[in-house]
Amino acid sequence: MRTFINVEDIGPLEKALVEAQEIKNDRFMYQHLGKNKTLMMIFFNNSLRTRLSTQKAAMNLGMNVIVLDVNAGAWKLETERGVIMDGDKSEHLLEAIPVMGCYCDMIGVRSFAGLTDREYDYAETVLNQFIKYSGKPVFAMETATVHPLQAFADLITIEEYSQTLRAKSQKPKVVLSWAPHCRALPQAVPNSFAQWMNAADVDFVITHPEGYELDPKFVGNARVEYDQKKAFEGADFIYAKNWSNPGVTNPADYGKITSKDMSWTVDTEHMSWTNNGKFMHCLPVRRNLIVTDDVIESPNSIVIPEAANREISCSVVIKRMLEAL
Ligand code: AN0
Ligand code: CP
């Protein structure tokens, strides 16, 4: 595997899930693969889980790890070509990337959407420059439009909590629900979640206020239900997330907050509509905007085991990349 961006990159999901459980049972079984290999993690944005779980996964696999926070100590980077660089940016990404590639065997990139230029964000301009100019395998640690390490961890978690249903040959009903937020957030998490759920063996529904339609390439064949209550009925998993307006129905709304409707906050009444459903969120989460204290603290909240599975999803991804070096 040379890149990890979309669900197709991991190949058959059943195989990836078996590998995930194998690694979860013995996290150090592939320790020999990473000997004398170096992972470079590059952060253009903040992180808690991705930073820690990716480093942990790489260490489990015997790798050395270098972490660069671009905005904390590196030269400010220009990303556009053709710019006269007489401002505060001392270095161009087009030199910085191949230089970074010289010092490692594999690169993880976190670079969020700017949320001002839809075309630039959806072209994955920064990620694609890393792929093109670093000369190394590259995986997304949340880029402009995708967060596949999260979606893979979410799938692992859903499968772990679906064993009773699977034993009865039933599919879990999984609902991705928009929820209100005070800041404009990217669409990467819901995009990848939708892409992975469409590929998985689940009954998948997306619910959000009108105007918040995700990009059709991620929605695929998913059912979109604008009535949140109808969507939640009979759900086994509620996956809450805010995203800013994707600009699909109205391009001028791209990256904007066009609803702050607090009736979408997931509370105990919302959860009572479900089939004793589990509550999921990628974290970080703002309580009492996305979800109430009661719901996130309830026994049905699986946000912590979900976060724990980030180490597992990342271990599978790095292992596959090491095998292909
Ligand atoms: C980011 C987002 O919504 O994409 C990261 C989530 C993993 N969240 C925030 O910026 C709060
Ligand atoms: N879920 C997730 O990616 O969290 P961080 O932004 O803390 O890495």
List keywords for this structure.
alpha/beta; single chain; binds phosphoric acid mono(formamide)ester; 13 helices; binds N-acetyl-L-norvaline; 325 residues
Give a verbal description of the structure:
- The chain is built from 13 helices and 12 strands.
- The protein has helices at residues 13-25, 49-60, 93-102, 118-122, 125-133, 148-160, 163-167, 188-199, 216-219, 228-232, 268-272, 293-296, 303-323; strands spanning 3-4, 38-43, 64-69, 77-78, 91-92, 106-110, 138-140, 173-178, 203-207, 223-224, 237-241, 278-280.
- The strands form 3 sheets. Strands 1-7-6-2-3 form a 5-stranded parallel β-sheet, sandwiched between helices. Strands 10-9-8-11-12 form a 5-stranded parallel β-sheet. A two-stranded parallel ribbon has the order 4-5.
- α2 (49-60) links the parallel β2 and β3 (64-69).
- α2 crosses α13 (303-323) and α6 crosses α8 (188-199).
- The longest helix is centred in the C-terminal third of the chain and has 21 residues, at 303-323.
- The model has no long low-confidence stretch (mean pLDDT 98).
- The structure holds N-acetyl-L-norvaline and phosphoric acid mono(formamide)ester (CP).
- Phosphoric acid mono(formamide)ester (CP) is lined by residues 47-50, 142, 150, 282-284.
- The site of N-acetyl-L-norvaline has 7 residues, from α8.
Give a quick precis of the structure.
The chain has 325 residues and is α/β, with parallel strands linked by helices. Helix content is 36%, strand content 14%.
What are the SSEs and their pairings?
Layout: E1 3-4, H1 13-25, E2 38-43, H2 49-60, E3 64-69, E4 77-78, E5 91-92, H3 93-102, E6 106-110, H4 118-122, H5 125-133, E7 138-140, H6 148-160, H7 163-167, E8 173-178, H8 188-199, E9 203-207, H9 216-219, E10 223-224, H10 228-232, E11 237-241, H11 268-272, E12 278-280, H12 293-296, H13 303-323
Parallel strand pairs: 1-7, 2-3, 2-6, 4-5, 6-7, 8-9, 8-11, 9-10, 11-12
Helix pairs in contact: 1-13, 2-13, 6-8, 6-13
Bound molecules: N-acetyl-L-norvaline and phosphoric acid mono(formamide)ester.
The site of N-acetyl-L-norvaline (AN0) has 7 residues, from helix 8.
